[in-house]
Amino acid sequence: MNDLQYEFGMVGLGVMGRNLMLNIADNDFSVIGLDLDGAKAAAVEIEAGPGKPVRGTTSTEEFIQSLRKPRAIMLLVPAGPPVDAVIKSLLPLLEPGDIVIDGGNSYFPDTERRVLELEEKEIHFFGMGISGGEQGARFGPSMMPGGNREAYERLRPVFEAVAAKVNGEPCVTFLGNGSAGNFVKMVHNGIEYGIMQLIAETYDVLRRGAGLSDDELQATFQAWNDTELQSYLIEITGEILQKQDEETGQRLVHVISDRARSKGTGKWTSQNAMDLQVPVPTIDMAVLMRDISKFKEERVEAANLLPNNRLQEAISTDHQEFIAKMRNAFYFAMISTYAQGMAQLKVASETYKYELQLQDVAKIWRGGCIIRAACLTDIRSAYEQNPSLPNLLLDSKIGGDLLDRQDDIRIIVKVAIDKGIAVPAFMSALAYFDAYRTETLPTNIIQAQRDYFGAHTYERTDKEGIFHTIWN
């Protein structure tokens, strides 16, 4: 093979970079990888096997010279300063028209800065979120690229080949300008936080509230994956609940610490939503609950000082009836979470001039990614029918589904309150629904208060203008 004909370059041959390289090669595209660790550079060739168009190197010069022009180079290195360091090392060897793709979880303002900096040198920079983890990278991820639309054509054949497929459609498409790709991935991760918290609360209510056994819990999540709740996160929860601990013989989940970790992307989603003044309360609650989980010692002390004596009271319905209500409640809250994230994407697209097509976002989330779910087909259809839809709750089918299930989520929330079980994600999802459909909110009182103590003025309902009252 001619060394100058490698179709694609990969910088960073860790788990994600190596698996994506192998995926590219399996789809008959030649790919060369760069890593300063010689063992990683050599290992990727061995893993690919003889005859595969794969090569690894530790030489930046050799790497650049071996790529077809305009060069397409993906970085899979830790977000932050490492990305800037790699760009700095590549820049002296790049030429106008070359394309650099950041495949990590970079914060979107960093991507926006890099787009502008490289644009001055006539080099295209893409921020591309990748979802699906190690298995996704190897066999088909969901990919969310944003940058220059014309430059994307150089990347499209490779990306469409390696992406996950749903009904023959690749789970990748050009999303929008500038940092659109990283922004969409950030919101994807926020929705992921929200749904994971909802699953955790569901597990807690069924276990501590309804008294389901380990076997009943596992069977419930496994069965739900054959319903409208079908999703990757429901599927793996069923598998997690089945796993036994080799040391103790009990279910492994019972010996896993409840101190939750995070890498910050959920927090970024919440922070940005506040900047845009778009409410995403379920995502906010998911971030909050990971934070409160870290105060383990204080929670142990509080549990002894403030005991919960309500858990002994039996629920008034049988298990199967309660599970059915829980299923409807979860569906309601899950759709509410998607609605919050999609609303944030719509406002961000207008604010940052991304030109996002939300039906495309829903389309590429249907496969490969962590939040893939059957409900995304309905979400995609809603935006296809009305691309300017401001909120999924305004779609007649989706809104109707929530109306039909609202009684059950109210019952579940009441049971949790009576039992002293914290369900902030469920409560916030329901409150979002109720607030959004309220024609007149009580925030007129807030406006009056603001004018009273700070002369901040207010608007009236009966005539145009800005008003101030001398209250005392």
Please explain how this structure is put together:
There is one protein chain. By secondary structure, the protein is α/β, with parallel strands linked by helices. The protein has 3 domains: 3-178, NAD(P)-binding Rossmann-like Domain (Rossmann fold, 3-Layer(aba) Sandwich); 185-436, N-(1-d-carboxylethyl)-l-norvaline Dehydrogenase, domain 2; 441-472, Single alpha-helices involved in coiled-coils or other helix-helix interfaces, CATH 1.20.5. Helix content is 54%, strand content 8%. The chain has helices at 15-26, 38-48, 60-65, 81-90, 108-119, 133-139, 149-162, 180-209, 214-224, 232-240, 265-276, 281-293, 296-305, 319-352, 358-364, 376-385, 396-419, 424-436, 443-454, and strands at residues 8-11, 31-34, 54-57, 72-75, 99-102, 124-131, 142-146, 165-166, 169-170. The chain has a 7-stranded mixed β-sheet with strand order 3-2-1-4-5-6-7, with helices on both faces. A two-stranded antiparallel ribbon has the order 8-9. The mean pLDDT is 95.
